[in-house]
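Before going further, learn to read the protein records used in this course. The integers have meaning only within a learned vocabulary of local backbone shapes. The record below shows the convention in full.
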Amino acid sequence: DKFARHVLPLCGARLSLCSHAVLAVRAGQFGSYLWTPMRSGSIWHIPAVDIEVVDPTGAGNAYAAALGSACPRPERSAQDIDTWWQAVLAAACKAAATGAAFVSVQGCPKESAELIAWLESPAA
């Protein structure tokens, strides 16, 4: 946490992120950390899903793809920052679940009713 709190704002400043940008750092079994210039004093930790790791290949890429596709677009959310940020955090939780689906099997997960139900279930 101390590392993330120090490094994320520095990275965001270095990248000259626009106000609605989100910087996410994946930390494997420790989850991920999110930062945005809109809430510059806050670093948000998204815990990893507690699951047996079978094969970590592709989990980080799956997380990044899920986060990028699930994050709300700024133009739809400029009026209410709190609602936008809650949607970003929800997207990060979905991304964590997607990464977990990848590590729980050998190779790329196969679509199944069980996998879809698990991904759509509420977080415990």
User: Anything to note?
Assistant: The beta strands are 23-26, 32-35, 44-46. The mean pLDDT is 81. The radius of gyration is 15 Å.
